[in-house]
Amino acid sequence: CFVTGMKRCCCRAAPLLALLGIARGRPVGSMRGGGGTSFLSNMCRLRGGQHGAAAGETQIFETVVSSEVTRVATSPFEGQKPGTSGLRKKTSVFLQPGYLENFIQSLFDSLPDGELRGATLVVSGDGRYGNAAAVQIICKMAAAHGVARVWVGRDGLLSTPAASCVIREREGGVACGGVILSASHNPGGPDADFGIKYNVRNGGPALESLTEEVYERSTQIREYAIVAGLPDVDLSLEGRHVFVDEKGGAPHFEVEVIDPTEDYVALMASLFDFDALRSLLRRPDMSLVFDGMHGVAGPYARAIFGALGVADEALLNCIPSEDFGGGHPDPNLTYAAALAKLMGLTGQPAGGEPPVLGAAADGDADRNMIVGRRFFVTPSDSLAVIAAHAHALPWLARQGGLRALARSMPTSGAVDRVAEELGLPLFETPTGWKYFGNLMDSHLLGGADLSPLLCGEESFGTGSSHIREKDGLWAVLCWASILAHHNVDTPEGQLVGVEEVVTQHWRRFGRNFYTRYDYENVDAAAAEEIVERLRAMGSSFRGAGYGPSEPQLLQDGFALATIDEFSYRDPVDSSTTSQQGVRLLFADGSRIVLRLSGTGSVGATVRIYIERYQPPGDEYALLANATDALRPLVDLALHLSQVRELTGREAPTVIT
Fold first, then answer.
1. Burial of 26 (0-12, 13-18, 19+ CB in 10 A)
2. DSSP E strands: which ranges in 398-525?
3. Residue 27: predicted pLDDT
4. pLDDT tens digits for 475-516?
5. Which pLDDT score, from 0 to 100, does residue 602 have?
6. Do 587 and 562 touch, CB atoms closer than 8 A?
7. Most CB within 10 Å of its CB: which of 10, 72, 144, 297?
8. Dist. CA 532–CA 182, nearest whole Å
9. Measuring CA to CA, which residue among 253, 120, 243 is closest to residue 178?
10. What angle is formed at CA 138 by the lines to CA 134 and CA 141, rounded to 5 degrees?
11. Catalytic one among 106, 124, 184, 641?
12. Residue 11: exposed, middle, or buried by beta-carbon count in 10 A (0-12, 13-18, 19+)?
C-alpha cells in the first residue's frame, strides 16, 4: 500500500480511507504453510519467507489439521521475572529451546480459570528479530489452551498503542487481552534484546499481582501444552486462517491476520480534527518531520501523516526493521541524533532552516520526542503543555474537559502547576503505565470517574485514557493540534512555533529545569551499593534530627529537607508499591531522585533525576540555559551518590 508502506491495505478500512482522502489497492497472492514448534526452528524458517495476498473482502483459508494437544516436559529457567514492562532479556536467552514456551505457559496458567476458553486473544509485536517466529509459537500454545481466535497484525506487527486499541475497540472490545512482543526502546537483533508482556482486557499492562504469579509459576513449571501439528500461518496474508479436524467441520481454532493500522488510524481520526491539521500543514511557513527510527511506528506515521498531506520524504526511517536499522530505537537526543541535527539542535543543518515541528517514536511506538526549530521539549514540559491546552484537543472538549492529571514520581512537577491552576486532581505514581490504567478505570472499580485523564512519564511517554498505554503518535498529533490552535488567524510568515508555545507556558506557570543522567549496563552489585549508600545517608540524616523544619545545609547553599524512598498506595485498589526510588527534597523545591530502571535486559540502569523550579516573573532566569541552571545541583547529585566512584563511569551513557 502506498499509504502505509506495508504489503497490503485491508478493504474493511475503505470507508475510513475515503474519509481521510486516501485511495488504496489490493494485490493478489497465495497462502504458505509449514509445521514446527521450536522458536529457534521457526526463526530459521520464517525470516525472509514468501509473501502474497488474495483478492476479496475477508478471505477464509481452511486447513484440515488435528487439534491434538502435545504436552512437552520442561524445567524452570532462572530469572523469568517481569520488570516494569514485561520480561526483557537478550535475544539469545529467548532463543533457548523451551524458554519462550515456559513463560507463555506460566502466563496462561496465571490467568483466571476459563478466561482463555473460547476467547479472542491479540498476539503481535514491534517486528524485531524473533517477532514472527514467536507469534507462531504463541498461536499454537493458545490453541492448546482453548483460545478460539487469535488476532495478529499483518506481518506480525502491531505497535503497543495499536495493540491496546485493538483489545479495547475491535468488534466492541471482545478480546480477553493481548501478548505483545517488544523490548520497547531497547535495540533489536540476534545480539540485542527481545521482550514479551501481557495486556489485560482493558488494553493496559498486567498489574503486579498477575506478573508476580507468572514468575512464581515459572519457577515451578514442569510441562507446557502446544498443538504441535498446527501449521505456521502466512502472516503476510490478511484473512481468516481457519483450522478444522475434517473438511467442512466446525473450526477448532482460527488465526485472523488483520490490517495493523486500521483500528488505530480510525481512533486517531475520531480524536483529532484532521481538517484543521491539514490546514496547518498546507501553510507555506509550516513544516513537519517524523523519524520512525526503523520501528513499528513507521506504517502508522505514513498512514496518518500521509493522509494529512505530509510528503513521504519528511517521514524518515519509517520502514520497520528487525534490528532497527542497526540503531538504538530510543527517541532521545543521543539516539535520535540525526533528527536532532536536522532540527538545528547540534548546528545548522544543510538545506536551510530546520522544520517547525520534529518528532520521533521508539521501537514499539509508545514513546515520543518532540522538538521545535533549534528547541528541545523535555517530556515533562511536553505533558504540562498538552495538559494546559486540553481545550484545544477536540475529543477532550467533547467530553467536557479533563478530570484528572497524573505523572510518574521521577517526572518533573511542571504538570502539577497546571493541575493546581485548573483545579484538577494530580496523582503521583511509581514508574509504569499500569498505575495510570488503574486511575483511568477507577469508575469501573467503585471509585471516582477520573476520565478523561492525561498522564506521562519523563522517559518520553505521554498518553491519555483513549487507550491504556502511552502513545507516541498521539502525542505528536496533540502537538500539531496545539500549533493549529495557535495559528488559526496567524498571518503567513508569523507562525507560532514550538519554542514560542513553550516559552508562553513558562511565563504563565514557571519553569521546571530538569535533566536525567542514565548509566546503562552497570554492574548490578555496584548499582545496589549506590542505592544503599543513599538509604544509609537518609538514616543518618533523620538520626541527626534534620527534617523539613530543620534542613541540613549542603554545598552551594542547598538546604536538604527530606530523604526518603517513594512508596505508593493505589487510591483505587489500595495496593502498595514500595522502594520506587530514593528522593532528596530541598527546601527551595529542588529534587534529586535516584532509581534503578526495570527496562533493561542485562545489568542495571542507574537513573539520576535532577530538577529545579524557577517561578515566573524573571524573564532572564526563565530563559536561562538548562545546563547552566542545573550545574550546581548536578554536581551535588554526583557527589552525594558517588556514582562515578562506585561504577567507574566518568560520564553517563545518556543525558536527557
1. middle
2. 404-408, 426-429, 453-457, 461-464, 511-522
3. 27
4. 999 999 999 999 999 999 999 999 999 999 999 999 999 999
5. 58
6. no
7. 297
8. 32
9. 120
10. 145
11. 184
12. middle
Residue 51 has a pLDDT of: 34
Instruction: Give tens-digit pLDDT for 516-533.
Output: 999 888 888 899 999 999
- Rounded to an integer, what distance in angstroms lies between the CA atom of residue 26 and that of residue 7? 9
Kindly give, in sequence order, each residue whose CB lies less than 8 Å from that of residue 485, ignoring residues fewer than 6 positions away.
389, 392
Is the pTM for the entire model greater than 0.90? no
Q: CA-CA distances (angstroms) from residue 440 to 388, 402, 408?
A: 19, 12, 14
Task: Report the distance separating Cα 212 and Cα 195, nearest Å.
Answer: 17
DSSP class per residue in 24-51: ---------------HHHHHHHHTT---
Order of strands across the sheet that contains 120-125: 60-64, 239-244, 251-258, 149-153, 120-125, 177-181, 193-199, 87-90
Residue 153 contacts residue 131 (beta carbons within 8 Å): no
Tell me the Ramachandran region of residue 393: left when phi exceeds 0, alpha when psi lies from -120 to 50, beta otherwise: beta
Q: How many residues does the chain have?
A: 656
**Cβ contacts of 574 within 8 Å, gap of 6 or more:** none
Give the model confidence (pLDDT) of 398-419 as tens digits: 998 999 999 999 999 999 999 9
What local confidence, expressed as pLDDT, does residue 647 receive? 86
The alpha carbon of residue 76 and the mean position of all alpha carbons in its chain are separated, in whole angstroms, by 29
With helix as H, strand as E and coil as C, how does 351-388 read? CCCCCCEEEEECCCCCEEEEEECCEEECHHHHHHHHHH
Which residues have a Cβ under 8 Å from the Cβ of 321 and sit 6 or more positions away? 127, 188, 294
Region of 506 please: left (phi>0), alpha (psi -120 to 50) or beta.
Answer: alpha
184 given a catalytic annotation? yes
Torsion angle of C-alpha atoms 25, 31, 34, 38, degrees rounded to 10:
20
Number of H helices, E strands in the chain: 21, 28
User: Helix crossing, 131-144 with 39-46: angle to 10°?
Assistant: 130
- Taking the C-alpha atoms of residue 279 and residue 488, their distance in angstroms, rounded to an integer, is 9
Residue % of the chain over a pLDDT of 90:
77
426-429: strand order across its sheet: 426-429, 404-408, 453-457, 461-464
**CA 86 to CA 94: how far, in whole Å?**
13
Rounded CA separation 157/229 (Å): 24
Angle value at C-alpha 154, between 36 and 147, nearest 5 degrees: 60
Question: Do 223 and 73 meet the contact criterion of CB atoms below 8 Å apart?
Answer: yes
**For residues 156 and 283, what is the distance between their CA atoms, to the nearest angstrom?**
37
* Euclidean distance between CA atoms 559 and 592, whole angstroms: 12
Q: What is the DSSP string of 192-252?
A: SEEEEEEE-TTSSBPPHHHHHHHHHHHTT--EEEE-TTPPPP-TTS-EEEEEESSTTSPEE
CB proximity list for 577: less than 8 A, separation 6 or greater: 208, 430, 435, 567, 568, 570
Contact 432, 439 (CB under 8 A): no
- What's the mean pLDDT in 579-599? 87
Q: 248: burial class by Cβ within 10 Å (0-12, 13-18, 19+)?
A: exposed
| pLDDT single digits (tens) 303-323 | 999 999 999 999 999 999 999
Which grid coordinates belong to 545? Answer: 534530627
* Secondary structure letter of residue 442 according to DSSP: G
Q: Do residues 584 and 593 make contact, with C-beta atoms less than 8 angstroms apart?
A: yes
